[in-house]
Amino acid sequence: MWDEGCDYNTVREIRVKTTAYLGVGAIDKIDDILSRFRAEGVRALLCVSGGHAYKATGAWDKVEAAAARHRIRLALYNKVTPNPTTESVDEAAALGRAVNAEAVLAIGGGSPIDCGKSAAILLANPGKTGEDLYCFRFTPTTALPVIAINLTHGTGSEVNRFAVATVTRLNYKPAIAYDCIYPRYAIDDPALMTGLSADQTRYVSIDAVNHVIEAATTTVSNPFAVMLARETVRLVHAWLPKAVADPKNLKARYELAFAAMQAGVAFDNGLLHFTHALEHPLSAVQPNLTHGLGLAVLLPAVIEECYPARPGVLAHILEPLAPGLKGTPDEARKAAKAVEEWLFSLGVTRKLTDLGISEADVDKFCDLVEQTPSLGLLLSVAPVKGSRERVARIYRNSLRPML
Question: What is d(CA 235, CA 190) in angstroms, rounded to the nearest whole number?
């Protein structure tokens, strides 16, 4: 296949709405990026990260050195947790205001990047809060410029206009999508991803697979999203087991980083539907639930519901995971079981009951799907009607493994 000839030591520029740098050593591009920002008059950066990986990967050392060279002050907010909250967004924005930040640099996976994007909006819209933003009390058209240094191969947030945060007091986990939060620059350096644990490695790449399965099957999808979807699934199928077996395998990390970047562009084009709409309430209620695991639990049941409406597309993009599909509606169960078996082969075997969720909880989660801002929009572009009955059926069919 064409990717066999890719040199993972060559840093190539990939242009979507964001200018992204992909390859081992891409972190060194931070010097050029900060040079450009300083030439534009940026003197202070709000840096948003989690509490550990930004330093452990060595990314922070590169950022500090480049900032010192270009006389840019750094203000670090390093308290972002998985499934970030609007409280974290408010705290990050407050720090940015205190130093008169003129741009935002996010370092980490989807949670720090989403928090950084959200803070960038608040810094350009004085008087607004994270809850205002995620409860859609205003529609932002401006944000401070964003740089994203991505430390996982799953989010896609480094190359698109999406962000997510939890409104804790309401158990809402909405998604926002605004042109003003496309990162201007993104860095995807596989060498920064070799410290991911085996479970993190699995879950972030499963997130990427979910992105493209949904993006390729919405009512607003396009051929570009389908093309990216097929290639993303192929790359994850081929390279995820290698990355789990050998975390330092740079070729595997490169291919998975490229797959996740493609997936981010795919759902920027095609949007998302059931799996993300139904997972967000799960991780809002259980903030320690890893997003990729929640998606893995739901994905087989979502495929079974959607396959009859998009059999040709799903047979095409799922071929690496479910070979032999003919693209006929009656294959829905077969396709769903094949994907579940693939997940199980990776060691991802938990279902909702294993997460402490029972049949009695289904109505509560259906309520949250209906009440959470933005999730109705995702369901509105699903390939089949996003009725409460269907949502409940997906949750119930995800309680235990398929028979």
Answer: 15
